[in-house]
C-alpha cells in the first residue's frame, strides 16, 4: 500500500488524495443530488453531470486507484458507513487500474440483533445482518404515494435464537418470495439492511461467503 493514503486519514482540507479502494456496492440513484454511489468503508458519490464520465470505470467488486477527490462531512439519514466524511468525485478525479485487493474483502459487517432491537445503534446508519429466515408472510400489495408496491414481512433468527423482523419492499419482496418457494428445505441467509433502503440494499439468499458458510455450519 506504499504511496496510498489510508481511508481513515481522509479529511476535507485537500483534494489530492491517492487511495486504493474495492467497490463493494454500486448503485444508481437519480435524484437532484444523486448519481453513482460507491462505498468501502467510506461513501462516495458521482454527481449526475459526471456519471457519464466515470460510469465505464466503476464496477461492483473491482479495485481501483482514485486520485484527486473532494471530501465533505457525512450527515443525514441512510449513511452507508461510519466514516466522518464522504467522497465526491470531481471532473479532475482520475480512476486507474491497480492491483486487486483480496477477494475476501467485501465490506460485510453484520451487527448484533440485540443492538438493533434495543436502539443502541444509530438509526441514521444502514447496517448489515445475517440470519436464518424462520417465518415469512404472503406478498401484499400496498398503495404508497399513489403507486401499488409489493411488501413482504420475514422473521430472522441469529445463533442465539434472537428474532428480528424484516420488511422488504418492491422487487426485493417478489425476489425473496420466489426464492422461498424453490428453497423450502434450505436455511436462507439474508444480508444488508433490516428494511431495504431504495436501491442501496442488497438481498442475498445463501450467498457463497465465508461469513455465511460459518453461520450455516453452526
Name the strands of the widest sheet in spatial order: 1-5-6-4-3-2
Compute the average pLDDT.
79
Provide the gyration radius in Å: 19 Å
Q: Which oligomerization state do the chains in this entry correspond to?
A: single chain
Domain Replication protein A 70 kDa DNA-binding subunit B/D first OB fold: 3-97
Protein name: Replication protein A 70 kDa DNA-binding subunit B/D first OB fold domain-containing protein
InterPro entries: NA-bd_OB-fold, RFA1B/D_OB_1st
Strand and helix layout:
Layout: E1 18-22, E2 26-29, E3 35-39, E4 43-47, H1 51-54, E5 63-73, E6 85-97, H2 113-117, E7 132-136, E8 140-144, E9 147-157, E10 163-169, H3 171-182, H4 210-217
Parallel strand pairs: 4-6
Antiparallel strand pairs: 1-5, 2-3, 3-4, 5-6, 7-9, 8-9, 9-10
Write a concise keyword list for the protein shown above:
single chain; four-stranded antiparallel sheet; alpha+beta
Amino acid at each position: 500500500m506504499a504511496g496510498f493514503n489510508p481511508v481513515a486519514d481522509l479529511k476535507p482540507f485537500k483534494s489530492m488524495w491517492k487511495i486504493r479502494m474495492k467497490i463493494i456496492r454500486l448503485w444508481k440513484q437519480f435524484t437532484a443530488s444523486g448519481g453513482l454511489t460507491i462505498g468501502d468503508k467510506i461513501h462516495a458519490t458521482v454527481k449526475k453531470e459526471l456519471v457519464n464520465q466515470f460510469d465505464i470505470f466503476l464496477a461492483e467488486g473491482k479495485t481501483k486507484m482514485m486520485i484527486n477527490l473532494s471530501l465533505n462531512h457525512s450527515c443525514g439519514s441512510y449513511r452507508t458507513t461510519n466514516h466522518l466524511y464522504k467522497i465526491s468525485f470531481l471532473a479532475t478525479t482520475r480512476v486507474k487500474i491497480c492491483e486487486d485487493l483480496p477477494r475476501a474483502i467485501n465490506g460485510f459487517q453484520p451487527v448484533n440483533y440485540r443492538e438493533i432491537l434495543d436502539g443502541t445503534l444509530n438509526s441514521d446508519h444502514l447496517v448489515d445482518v445475517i440470519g436464518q429466515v424462520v417465518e415469512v408472510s404472503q406478498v401484499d400489495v400496498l398503495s404508497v404515494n399513489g403507486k401499488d408496491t409489493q411488501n413482504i414481512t420475514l422473521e430472522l433468527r441469529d445463533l442465539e435464537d434472537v428474532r428480528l423482523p424484516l420488511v422488504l419492499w418492491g422487487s426485493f419482496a417478489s425476489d425473496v418470495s420466489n426464492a422461498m418457494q424453490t428453497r423450502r428445505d434450505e436455511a436462507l441467509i439474508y444480508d444488508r439492511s433490516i428494511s431495504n433502503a431504495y436501491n442501496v440494499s442488497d438481498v442475498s439468499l445463501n450467498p457463497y461467503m465465508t461469513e455465511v458458510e460459518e453461520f450455516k455450519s453452526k
